[in-house]
Specification:
There is one protein chain. By secondary structure, the protein is of the alpha+beta class. 33% of the residues lie in helices and 27% in strands. The chain contains 6 helices and 12 strands. Strands 1-2-3-4-7-10-11-12 form an 8-stranded antiparallel sheet, covered by helices on one side. Helix 1 packs antiparallel against helix 4 and helix 5 packs antiparallel against helix 6. The chain is globular, with a radius of gyration of 18 Å.
Protein backbone atom coordinates (compact mmCIF):
# COMPACT_ATOMS: atom_id res chain seq x y z
CA UNK A 1 0.00 0.00 0.00
CA UNK A 2 1.35 3.41 -1.00
CA UNK A 3 0.42 6.75 0.53
CA UNK A 4 1.49 10.14 -0.88
CA UNK A 5 1.38 13.67 0.51
CA UNK A 6 3.20 16.92 -0.26
CA UNK A 7 5.02 18.20 2.83
CA UNK A 8 7.73 20.90 3.00
CA UNK A 9 6.84 21.59 -0.62
CA UNK A 10 8.13 18.11 -1.55
CA UNK A 11 6.20 15.01 -2.67
CA UNK A 12 6.67 12.35 0.02
CA UNK A 13 5.53 8.75 -0.14
CA UNK A 14 5.22 5.83 2.25
CA UNK A 15 5.12 2.29 0.87
CA UNK A 16 3.95 -0.28 3.44
CA UNK A 17 4.24 -3.98 2.59
CA UNK A 18 2.36 -5.55 5.50
CA UNK A 19 -0.77 -5.37 7.65
CA UNK A 20 -4.31 -4.48 6.63
CA UNK A 21 -5.16 -1.26 4.80
CA UNK A 22 -6.85 0.42 7.79
CA UNK A 23 -3.82 -0.12 10.02
CA UNK A 24 -1.41 0.95 7.29
CA UNK A 25 -3.40 4.12 6.57
CA UNK A 26 -3.41 5.07 10.26
CA UNK A 27 0.36 4.47 10.50
CA UNK A 28 1.00 6.55 7.38
CA UNK A 29 -1.10 9.40 8.77
CA UNK A 30 0.94 9.40 11.99
CA UNK A 31 4.15 9.54 9.96
CA UNK A 32 2.88 12.38 7.78
CA UNK A 33 1.84 14.24 10.94
CA UNK A 34 5.44 14.03 12.15
CA UNK A 35 6.56 15.59 8.87
CA UNK A 36 3.91 18.32 9.00
CA UNK A 37 4.86 19.18 12.58
CA UNK A 38 8.52 19.48 11.55
CA UNK A 39 7.55 21.81 8.72
CA UNK A 40 5.58 23.96 11.14
CA UNK A 41 8.69 24.28 13.32
CA UNK A 42 11.41 24.71 10.71
CA UNK A 43 9.95 26.20 7.54
CA UNK A 44 11.83 29.32 6.46
CA UNK A 45 8.77 30.26 4.38
CA UNK A 46 6.33 30.39 7.29
CA UNK A 47 6.57 33.55 9.39
CA UNK A 48 4.98 31.71 12.32
CA UNK A 49 7.55 28.88 12.39
CA UNK A 50 10.00 28.64 15.26
CA UNK A 51 12.89 29.01 12.83
CA UNK A 52 11.47 32.25 11.44
CA UNK A 53 10.88 33.64 14.92
CA UNK A 54 14.40 32.74 16.04
CA UNK A 55 15.94 34.26 12.92
CA UNK A 56 13.84 37.41 13.34
CA UNK A 57 15.72 38.03 16.57
CA UNK A 58 19.11 37.47 14.98
CA UNK A 59 19.42 33.76 15.69
CA UNK A 60 19.01 33.96 19.47
CA UNK A 61 18.09 30.44 20.60
CA UNK A 62 17.13 31.22 24.18
CA UNK A 63 13.88 29.51 25.11
CA UNK A 64 13.69 27.36 21.97
CA UNK A 65 12.03 23.95 21.89
CA UNK A 66 13.78 20.64 22.50
CA UNK A 67 13.35 19.78 18.83
CA UNK A 68 15.02 23.01 17.76
CA UNK A 69 17.90 22.35 20.14
CA UNK A 70 18.24 18.80 18.84
CA UNK A 71 18.44 19.90 15.20
CA UNK A 72 20.96 22.62 16.01
CA UNK A 73 22.98 20.13 18.02
CA UNK A 74 23.09 17.66 15.13
CA UNK A 75 24.12 20.36 12.69
CA UNK A 76 26.75 21.78 15.03
CA UNK A 77 28.29 18.33 15.54
CA UNK A 78 28.51 17.81 11.77
CA UNK A 79 30.00 21.27 11.32
CA UNK A 80 32.72 20.38 13.83
CA UNK A 81 33.35 16.94 12.31
CA UNK A 82 33.70 18.39 8.80
CA UNK A 83 36.09 21.13 9.84
CA UNK A 84 33.48 23.78 9.16
CA UNK A 85 32.60 22.69 5.59
CA UNK A 86 29.08 21.83 6.75
CA UNK A 87 27.44 25.07 7.88
CA UNK A 88 24.18 25.77 9.67
CA UNK A 89 24.67 29.43 10.53
CA UNK A 90 24.91 32.32 8.11
CA UNK A 91 27.40 35.19 8.53
CA UNK A 92 24.60 37.38 9.94
CA UNK A 93 24.01 34.88 12.77
CA UNK A 94 20.73 33.47 11.49
CA UNK A 95 20.18 29.73 11.06
CA UNK A 96 20.16 27.75 7.82
CA UNK A 97 19.01 24.28 8.87
CA UNK A 98 18.06 22.90 5.46
CA UNK A 99 20.94 20.40 5.59
CA UNK A 100 19.52 18.85 8.75
CA UNK A 101 15.75 19.19 8.89
CA UNK A 102 14.44 17.04 6.02
CA UNK A 103 16.50 13.97 6.89
CA UNK A 104 15.85 14.38 10.61
CA UNK A 105 12.11 14.77 10.10
CA UNK A 106 11.85 11.88 7.64
CA UNK A 107 13.88 9.68 9.97
CA UNK A 108 11.50 10.52 12.81
CA UNK A 109 8.55 9.69 10.60
CA UNK A 110 10.14 6.33 9.72
CA UNK A 111 10.74 5.60 13.39
CA UNK A 112 7.06 6.30 14.09
CA UNK A 113 6.21 3.53 11.63
CA UNK A 114 8.58 1.12 13.37
CA UNK A 115 7.26 2.06 16.81
CA UNK A 116 3.78 1.32 15.50
CA UNK A 117 4.86 -2.25 14.78
CA UNK A 118 5.59 -2.03 11.05
CA UNK A 119 8.68 -3.82 9.78
CA UNK A 120 8.54 -3.67 5.99
CA UNK A 121 8.27 -0.16 4.59
CA UNK A 122 9.93 2.51 2.49
CA UNK A 123 9.58 6.23 3.19
CA UNK A 124 10.68 8.50 0.34
CA UNK A 125 11.10 12.18 1.21
CA UNK A 126 11.79 13.83 -2.11
CA UNK A 127 14.47 11.32 -3.06
CA UNK A 128 15.92 10.79 0.41
CA UNK A 129 14.83 7.35 1.53
CA UNK A 130 14.45 5.34 4.74
CA UNK A 131 13.82 1.61 4.34
CA UNK A 132 13.04 -1.21 6.72
CA UNK A 133 12.75 -4.92 6.12
CA UNK A 134 11.88 -6.09 2.64
CA UNK A 135 9.40 -5.34 -0.15
CA UNK A 136 8.76 -9.08 -0.28
CA UNK A 137 10.37 -12.50 -0.33
CA UNK A 138 13.35 -11.27 1.67
CA UNK A 139 14.57 -9.04 -1.16
CA UNK A 140 16.33 -5.74 -0.45
CA UNK A 141 14.66 -2.47 -1.37
CA UNK A 142 15.83 -0.92 -4.65
CA UNK A 143 16.63 2.78 -4.25
CA UNK A 144 17.17 4.77 -7.43
CA UNK A 145 19.72 7.60 -7.48
CA UNK A 146 18.98 10.21 -10.13
CA UNK A 147 21.65 11.46 -12.48
CA UNK A 148 22.89 15.00 -11.79
CA UNK A 149 22.61 15.56 -15.54
CA UNK A 150 18.90 14.81 -15.93
CA UNK A 151 15.92 14.03 -13.72
CA UNK A 152 14.86 11.49 -16.37
CA UNK A 153 18.07 9.47 -16.01
CA UNK A 154 19.01 7.05 -13.23
CA UNK A 155 22.63 7.15 -12.11
CA UNK A 156 22.41 3.88 -10.16
CA UNK A 157 20.00 1.61 -8.35
CA UNK A 158 21.17 0.62 -4.89
CA UNK A 159 20.01 -2.43 -2.97
CA UNK A 160 19.43 -1.39 0.64
CA UNK A 161 18.23 -3.12 3.79
CA UNK A 162 17.33 -1.29 7.01
CA UNK A 163 18.94 2.10 6.51
CA UNK A 164 18.83 5.52 4.94
CA UNK A 165 19.95 6.88 1.58
CA UNK A 166 20.34 10.62 0.92
CA UNK A 167 21.65 12.62 -2.02
CA UNK A 168 22.93 16.19 -2.19
CA UNK A 169 23.57 18.14 -5.36
CA UNK A 170 23.12 21.45 -7.11
CA UNK A 171 20.99 20.17 -10.00
CA UNK A 172 17.58 21.19 -8.63
CA UNK A 173 18.10 24.30 -6.49
CA UNK A 174 21.29 25.59 -8.05
CA UNK A 175 24.47 26.28 -6.08
CA UNK A 176 22.73 26.40 -2.69
CA UNK A 177 25.21 24.26 -0.73
CA UNK A 178 27.97 26.42 0.70
CA UNK A 179 31.43 25.29 1.77
CA UNK A 180 31.48 26.88 5.19
CA UNK A 181 35.26 27.11 5.10
CA UNK A 182 35.18 29.59 2.22
CA UNK A 183 31.58 30.89 2.27
CA UNK A 184 31.51 30.08 -1.45
CA UNK A 185 29.40 27.58 -3.35
CA UNK A 186 30.63 23.99 -3.20
CA UNK A 187 31.70 22.97 -6.70
CA UNK A 188 33.96 19.91 -6.31
CA UNK A 189 31.17 17.37 -6.90
CA UNK A 190 28.05 17.21 -9.04
CA UNK A 191 26.26 14.95 -6.58
CA UNK A 192 26.93 12.96 -3.43
CA UNK A 193 24.85 10.01 -2.21
CA UNK A 194 25.38 8.43 1.21
CA UNK A 195 24.05 5.15 2.59
CA UNK A 196 23.97 4.99 6.39
CA UNK A 197 22.24 3.17 9.23
CA UNK A 198 19.59 5.90 9.44
CA UNK A 199 18.36 8.78 7.28
CA UNK A 200 19.42 11.53 9.69
CA UNK A 201 23.04 10.43 9.39
CA UNK A 202 22.80 9.84 5.64
CA UNK A 203 21.34 13.29 4.99
CA UNK A 204 23.86 15.14 7.17
CA UNK A 205 26.76 13.27 5.60
CA UNK A 206 25.53 13.75 2.02
CA UNK A 207 25.50 17.52 2.49
CA UNK A 208 28.89 17.45 4.21
CA UNK A 209 30.44 15.31 1.47
CA UNK A 210 29.12 17.67 -1.20
CA UNK A 211 30.59 20.63 0.67
CA UNK A 212 33.95 18.90 1.22
CA UNK A 213 34.30 17.68 -2.36
CA UNK A 214 36.12 14.50 -3.33
CA UNK A 215 38.04 14.43 -0.03
CA UNK A 216 34.71 14.02 1.71
CA UNK A 217 34.11 10.56 0.28
CA UNK A 218 36.73 8.81 2.38
CA UNK A 219 36.07 11.16 5.30
CA UNK A 220 32.42 10.10 5.39
CA UNK A 221 33.38 6.44 5.76
CA UNK A 222 34.96 7.31 9.11
CA UNK A 223 31.95 9.32 10.23
CA UNK A 224 29.01 6.95 9.94
CA UNK A 225 28.59 6.20 6.23
CA UNK A 226 28.13 2.62 5.05
CA UNK A 227 28.83 3.66 1.48
CA UNK A 228 29.27 6.78 -0.65
CA UNK A 229 28.49 7.23 -4.34
CA UNK A 230 29.50 10.52 -5.96
CA UNK A 231 29.90 12.19 -9.33
CA UNK A 232 32.90 14.50 -9.51
CA UNK A 233 33.20 17.75 -11.45
CA UNK A 234 34.54 15.85 -14.47
CA UNK A 235 31.56 13.48 -14.49
CA UNK A 236 33.37 10.41 -13.10
CA UNK A 237 31.35 8.03 -10.93
CA UNK A 238 33.16 7.39 -7.64
CA UNK A 239 32.22 4.95 -4.90
CA UNK A 240 33.46 3.63 -1.60
CA UNK A 241 32.15 1.27 1.07
CA UNK A 242 29.26 -1.18 1.10
CA UNK A 243 27.34 -0.41 -2.08
CA UNK A 244 25.17 -3.11 -3.67
CA UNK A 245 24.06 -2.29 -7.21
CA UNK A 246 20.99 -3.65 -8.97
CA UNK A 247 22.11 -3.79 -12.60
CA UNK A 248 23.36 -0.20 -12.88
CA UNK A 249 26.74 1.20 -13.84
CA UNK A 250 29.24 0.75 -11.06
CA UNK A 251 31.85 3.33 -10.01
CA UNK A 252 35.33 3.27 -11.39
Amino acid sequence: MRFVETVMGIPMSIDIRETEERVAAAAAERAFRVLRDADALFSAYRPDSELSRVNARGGDTSGTSEDFAEVVGLGSAMADASGGAFRIRRPDGTWDLDGVVKGWAADRAARSLAVGGLRNFCLNAGGDVAVSGSPGEGRPWNVGVRSPESAAEVLAVLEVRDGGVATSGAYERGAHIVDGRTDGAATGLRSATVVAADLTTADLLATAVFALGEDGIRWAMGNGARGVLAVDAAGRLLGLGELAFAGAEQPR
